[in-house]
Amino acid sequence: MLDKLTPHQESEYAQQVLGDLRAHHLDQVKANLDGSLQQLPDIDAKLEQTASYFPSGEPESVKIVGSLVQVRAGSDNPDGRRTFDLTYEYEFADGWALANVHMYKIGDALHIDGIHVQRMSQSLEQQNTFTLAGKDAAHWIMVLLAGAMALFCLYAFVRCLCTPIARRKWLWAIFTLFGIGTLRFNWNTGAFDVQLLSVQLFSASASSQNYAPWIVGVSFPLGAIWFLWRRKSLIAASPLPDTADPKPLGQMEH
Questions:
Q1: What pTM does this model have?
Q2: With contact defined as beta carbons under 8 Å apart, do 153 and 174 qualify?
Q3: Total structural domains in the chain?
Q4: Do 8 and 118 sit in the same domain of this protein?
């Protein structure tokens, strides 16, 4: 899917430049750079250093692992510039490399304004695999907390369905399933961040986009807590069902 969404012309151009870089054809790479980069006094040394991050030999496989295309509209972009940020994963016999090319396009002309290469001992898929092996207490706490939040919301939802509420019962039931705010945890790096303006179904999530690390998120189960706190008052405000069995008019007792 990621390959289908990647602009093919720009991707072929980026891979050609990276191929020249791997082969140490630095003059050809330099000719494709933006003019401001070509004028840097140490550009040749920087290109040589960047090329050295590729393992030796021919790659066994090359695949796109990141693709971002940006186009600004209106007066902010008078020349109609489009920017492309493409990342490739190279597999070699003795290691891996992650190569990123940032470029922009004006008309039909492509200009590269950034090349970055990083050597890796594992593929991104291996690095970002969701596993509990070798993880510390923070990972276990986040997994248990996410599971607890989801079960708590489900409990409140079922309890709401079984509660005699006269009005807006389905609105209350749906409300119990959502939490607000999100504490996010990067499974690969162990880093935390908070999103205050966030709503999550079941107050928990675990997701990974393409080859990115898994992100586990937990939210405050506002709907579930509010319903359970209001449950008695909602029952009290609901009229009791009429269980009497009135006899039809005119029926005589014998």
A1: 0.72
A2: no
A3: 2
A4: yes
